Amino acid sequence: MSAKNTNEYVNGDIKNVWHHLMLHQGNAPMIAVEGKGLYLKDLNGKEYLDATSGGVWCVNVGYGRDRIANAAAEQMKKLPFYAASCGSQPAIDFSEKLLSHMPGLSRVYISSSGSEANEKAFKMVRQISQLKHGGKKYKIIYRDRDYHGTTISTLSACGQEERREQYGPFTPGFVEFPACLAYRSPYPEGTKNLGEKFARELEAVVLKEGPDTVGAVILEPITAGGGIIVPPEGYYETISEICKKYGILIIMDEVVCGLGRTGKWFGYQHFNIQPDIVTMAKGVASAYMPISCTVTTEEVFAALQDTTDKLSYFRDISTFGGCLAAPAAALENIKIIEEESLLDNVVAMGDYLQQGLQELLSHSNVGDVRGKGLLQGIEFVADKASKKPLEEEKVIAVCGAMAKRGVLVGRTNRSFVGRNNIVNVAPAYIVTKDQIDIILKALRESITEVLG
User: Fold this and answer.
1) Stated pTM of the model
2) What value, to the nearest 5°, has the Cα angle with vertex 315 and ends 309 and 321?
3) Which InterPro entries is this protein grouped with (predicted)?
4) pLDDT, tens digit, for every residue of 172-181?
5) 1-37: pLDDT as tens digits
6) The domain over range 67-339 is classified in CATH as 3.40.640.10
7) N or C terminus: which one in the chain shows less Cβ crowding within 10 Å?
């Protein structure tokens, strides 16, 4: 135990630590020190019910899981690391278990972050373009409001303008197509086949760019940080049809949705679509260890196994993809989800949570409630008739009022110009009805306090 007192920690934080997504302004944010289940305790001893699964949707089986910690510790004592150019028992066991939940996919490339997993996918697409299409089929289409990472190339595929601001110029060859948010649909209310109409907007972009230049499309199965957007019925069937027609690879970014967040092992499994590449990170080991995966079909793997040229294979390495405690922890995480039937709880508690959130629609500033499983969002508006987004400062105040009540929720944060108006609720898979009731009570009281 450190000999530092509370003030020394606060001063050390202000003086030395550069936080993610935070402007210090001379104040230290909450300093977390301990967690158990869904509960988090800060340096001052205040306890919070964490409805964010670690702030960014990743501590999916809850805090204090000795099984995962022990699995990682035992592996580190046995062998902490060897470069992933070599085989390892933890990577083999984990990959086999992971693929048992991913029919149609057969190869697992391990790295250490979601951004890195998506970079691998982009490199695969670009290299296949060189090997199979004379370098022409290199463009990657991404969707407005989706987010794929924090590196320059993943920001090049980012549909959130405030995330991109001041970081250009970006990697060429990335092209955007429109989001599929039914609440803000450009089509008349009651439009039939709305999902198909949204999906055809992808085809319009492909045709404009030239199908022979488009190698892949990358999508979050359910948009997470961009506003908790569940695509309308028929959307993914049409996306799949378009991609097959023009020979376009489908990359599913499951960094948030993957490993059970939506009630199935992967978000895309709610829809009639078979991806060529699936990326994942946050929940792979419930954030007990940093690990990400780029999972592919055998066809994608085979396309990068050309032995006629010494450079015609996937020449990529991730140093910390060789940290063996990570797949050991990830394997234990999957076993916990299986043995405790946590996906069933995600479905049941997700339904209960959404039912409670739907009751908020009677409030004049709650425009929409949407989500799937334990990935739920509330869109706040200044006026229901115009759907004008509520000012970001008021949304921040709602979240602050909840924190004062001991409940932590998330929100769209420095993502859009004038559209950071969605609060998200995404507790760990072990959440109970009583805990959801606490979240809903704090939310109702906070909305009344801030918005009347």
Assistant:
1) 0.97
2) 155
3) Aminotrans_3, Aminotrans_3_PPA_site, PyrdxlP-dep_Trfase, PyrdxlP-dep_Trfase_major, PyrdxlP-dep_Trfase_small
4) 999 999 999 9
5) 467 898 999 889 888 989 888 877 677 788 999 999 9
6) yes
7) N
